[in-house]
Write a structure and sequence with these properties.
Elements (H helix, E strand, L loop, with lengths): L8 E7 L2 E6 L4 E6 L4 E6 L2 E6 L6 E2 L19 H6 L6 E4 L27 E4 L2 E4 L7 E8 L1 E6 L18 E3 L22 E5 L6 H10 L6 E8 L14 H12 L12 E3 L7 H13 L6 E4 L20 H10 L3 E6 L2 E3 L5 H8 L13 E4 L2 E5 L24 E5 L27 H16 L8 E3 L11 E3 L7 H16 L5 E2 L1 E2 L8 H11 L5 E3 L15 H16 L1 H14 L4 E2 L1 H4 L13 E3 L3 E3 L9 E6 L5 E4 L5 E3 L2 E6 L7 E4 L5 E2 L1 E4 L4 H6 L3 E4 L11 E7 L6 H4 L4 E8 L2 E3 L1
Parallel strand pairs: 15-16, 15-26, 16-17, 17-21, 21-22, 22-23, 23-24, 25-26, 35-38
Antiparallel strand pairs: 1-2, 2-3, 3-4, 4-5, 5-10, 6-10, 7-12, 7-14, 8-9, 10-14, 11-13, 18-20, 19-20, 27-28, 28-29, 29-34, 30-33, 31-32, 31-34, 36-37, 38-39, 39-40
Helix pairs in contact: 9-10
Keywords: Glycosidase, Hydrolase
Pfam families: Gal_mutarotas_2 (PF13802), Glyco_hydro_31_2nd (PF01055), Glyco_hydro_31_3rd (PF21365)
Protein name: GANAB glucosidase
């Protein structure tokens, strides 16, 4: 992925205290005001964004205590930010009331000599005490978006796709936490943090002067969104991505942090997991159940109980005495296994991984230089440090003892801690003293993926799933929404959560089908399979205290519905794989909001119960209990959509009431302007058969808008496992066009 082009800035105007700069070929201009400091970004005469318009810029400089041996320049303490802090120790973003603060965001009452206050040099929460040797070091900045009414992004939150105003409440927090059975529709932090937001405009023709007048008078018809970013530490490092279209924005962001890794094809199939399949006999019985009930399956998972006393990268000798034979039996049926491994390492002198970490000094350190230790599933544990680099000990995490290289993938979990707290003190010894809390999981994800690549001699694409993430995690594998609950709210929230992930670049995402906690009823389980089949990562997973829920334990009627959902997923695998290729090359989400393809349709801006897969399918899962019908909005002036099951055609835009039964999945093919879109489909039911004898059908609408009887689409194919597509150009990418009764390729 090439680095983003940097446009040349040229001075095109000058006034007292203000510079006007041209910004690239798109007609953008930047007005830089000296006092009070402010940036205004315009396109032609349209004001797009103002920076520090409300004077909330703050940058607290490092300093020493008054009683320290060496005096250093002081800056105002963070009293204004202390008031903004809630119970979570984290940065945040939100909308806040109008402010009368002065230049540079410094509150007027703090402009003089700073006073010492409680919490300025250390903070205590329960048993944790974090020292702040340089005092408060918070940073913050505000952005004003006239003409913009909708803001999205900043995952991970169990929240609607369109972010809600936070004025008068808590901000959206961005601080990686392990949250047990999380709540929905709340701004609290979850497992990952991604400081990336997208705004959609509702344009009103208006000059810059008119917008500024509306802003100063606090009125007018132009909608406006205020965004304020705050962080307890760090630097102000902001990228404004100019688009102009939604796909342009995500592509530009992909050039900054990388695009989604092209996953191995098997990982787009169905995954069966629970905490835990007990032993080799249990694994064999589950795998045999999928064969006997003719259910497609590509991956079986083992949770942490497979290891010997939670000593990860080992096997329990009583439960799994012959792991190589178990894996080879799966491989003979073209199936794979994934082991779940946590990054905390059991402190045990007889455990090789622990001994090597300690001997090489690669554990995370306390501020005093000692190995940091905690308590979780293995008992006493330490965290492998990442300053050893990707070739350090974390690089070995891809090597799993006794595992044939093409069979085993890996997943990353975390250790439990209560919400609203740090899992560890903030002043641990990462990277020579830099706080690494949110970044830690990015580096574990990276090291695990690189370890798998090294294990195969650089030939094979890795599969690594991580629950926690940070900007850039998309380069190394997949993520999921964490420890959800078997209820309808968590089924519904999985859609906007995955859409939000996709906007930030994490295209390979999904939710635990059926819910991790508690037990779903048959209707909920069926509906979750139907919804999960149309999310990028498709895995059923469950807590060890839940009842077993393999599909054949359902009634024959419900089992048939699950089988139909699984087979539909496999029939559409060529469409999924092609969509991931587009994502990998262009940075566009696989699962995307309607407004990405229809940015001129305001009705799509707040929708998060239906979405698009690539530009081929519109999906509206049924997420209400006892549903007898759903309202489906078909976007796009003049577009024609057709029901995939009945092939009935409907001209957009319109809201269509669609009767449903429990067997209804709910998705539509689209015309996409120039004619019908052709989605490639497997004619085989399982991935292993389709790879052995590839045959594809192209699904085209029976008729299309002007020009009549036309359709187009594309298909991407490679070997599904290696990097040969990149290193040897070993791939096939075909564009299909159907017109006047003739198919061309």
């Amino acid at each position: 992925v090439p680095n983003p082009a940097v446009p040349r800035l040229e001075v095109t105007g000058r006034d007292e205290g203000t510079l006007e700069l041209s910004l690239g070929p798109g007609g953008h201009r930047l007005l830089v005001t000296e006092h009070p400091f402010r940036l205004d970004l315009l396109q032609h005469r349209e004001l797009l964004c103002s920076v520090n318009a409300r004077g909330l810029l703050v940058f607290e400089h490092q300093r020493r205590r008054r009683d320290s041996p060496t005096e250093a320049p002081r800056s105002p303490p963070g009293r204004w930010l202390q008031r903004e802090r809630g119970r979570q120790r984290s940065g945040g973003v939100g909308g806040v009331p109008q402010s009368t603060q002065g230049v540079g965001g410094r509150p007027p009452e703090l402009r003089g000599e700073p006073e010492e206050e409680q919490g300025a040099w250390e903070e205590t929460f329960k048993t944790h005490t974090d020292s702040k040797p340089y005092g408060p070091t918070s940073v913050g900045l505000d952005f004003s978006l006239p003409g913009f009414e909708h803001v999205y992004g900043i995952p991970e939150h169990a929240e609607s796709l369109r972010l809600r105003p936070t004025e008068g409440g808590d901000p959206y927090r961005l601080y990686n936490l392990d949250v047990f059975q999380y709540e929905v529709f709340t701004p609290m932090a979850l497992y990952g943090s991604w400081e990336f937001g997208v705004a959609d405009p509702l344009y009103h023709p208006q000059t810059l002067f008119g917008k500024l007048l509306d802003y100063m008078q606090g009125g007018g018809e132009t909608p406006q969104t205020e965004v304020r970013w705050m962080s307890e530490s760090g630097v102000i490092d902001v990228f404004l991505l100019l688009g102009p279209g939604p796909a342009d924005v995500t592509a530009q962001y992909g050039r900054l942090t990388g695009t989604q890794a092209l996953p191995p094809l098997f990982s787009l199939g169905y995954h069966q997991s629970r905490w835990n399949y007990q032993d080799e006999a249990d694994v064999e019985a589950v795998e045999r159940g999928f064969e006997e009930h003719e259910l497609p399956l590509d991956v079986l998972w083992l949770d942490i109980e497979h290891a010997d006393g939670k000593r990860y990268f080992t096997w329990d000798p009583a439960k799994f005495p012959n792991p190589r034979g178990m894996l080879e039996r799966l491989a003979a049926r073209k199936r794979r296994m994934v082991s779940i491994v946590d990054p905390h390492i059991k402190v045990d002198g007889g455990y090789r991984v622990h001994a090597e970490l300690r001997a090489r000094g690669l554990y995370v350190k306390t501020k005093d230089g000692n190995d940091y230790e905690g308590w979780c599933w293995p008992g006493q544990w330490g965290w492998g440090g990442t300053w050893g680099g990707p070739r350090g000990v974390l690089g070995d995490f891809g090597k799993v003892l006794g595992a044939p290289e093409r069979i085993l993938g890996q997943s990353r979990g975390a250790c439990g801690s209560p919400p609203n707290t740090s899992e560890t003190p903030l002043n641990l010894g990462h990277f020579g003293g830099w706080e690494l809390h949110n970044l830690y999981r990015l580096y574990v994800h990276k090291a695990t993926a690189e370890g798998q690549i090294r294990r195969s001699g650089g030939r094979l694409r890795p599969f690594v799933l991580s629950r926690a993430f940070f900007a850039g995690s998309q380069r190394y594998g997949a993520v999921w929404t964490g420890d959800n609950t078997a209820d309808w709210e968590h089924l519904r929230i999985s859609i906007p959560m995955c859409l939000s992930f996709g906007l930030a670049g994490l295209a390979f995402c999904g939710a635990d089908v059926g819910g991790f906690f508690q037990n779903p009823g048959p209707e909920l389980q069926v509906r979750w399979y139907q919804a999960g089949a149309f999310q990028p990562f498709f895995r059923a997973h469950a807590h060890l205290d839940t009842a077993r829920r393999e599909p054949w334990l359902l009634s024959p009627e419900h089992l048939a519905m699950v089988r139909a959902a699984l087979r539909r997923r496999y029939a559409l695998l060529p469409t999924w794989y092609t969509a991931f290729y587009h994502c990998h090359r262009q940075g566009v989400p696989v699962m995307r909001p309607l407004w990405m393809e229809f940015p001129d349709d305001p009705q799509t801006f707040a929708m998060d119960d239906q979405y698009l897969i690539d530009w081929v399918l519109l999906v509206h899962p049924v997420t209400e209990p006892g549903a007898r019908g759903v309202n489906v909005y078909l976007p796009g002036e003049g577009e024609v959509w057709y029901n995939d099951e009945t092939h009935e055609q409907h001209r957009a835009p319109q809201t269509l009431y669609v009767p449903v039964t429990l067997s209804t999945v709910g998705f539509w093919g689209g015309s996409r302007g120039l004619g019908g879109m052709m989605g490639p489909q497997n004619t085989r039911e399982t991935l292993k058969l389709s790879l052995q004898t590839p045959k594809f059908s192209l699904d085209t609408p029976k008729s299309s808008p002007d020009p009549p009887g036309t359709a187009q689409g594309d298909l991407y194919l490679d070997d599904g496992v290696s990097f040969d597509y990149a290193t040897k150009n070993a791939f096939l990418h075909r564009h299909f066009s159907f017109a006047n009764g003739t198919l061309t390729s």
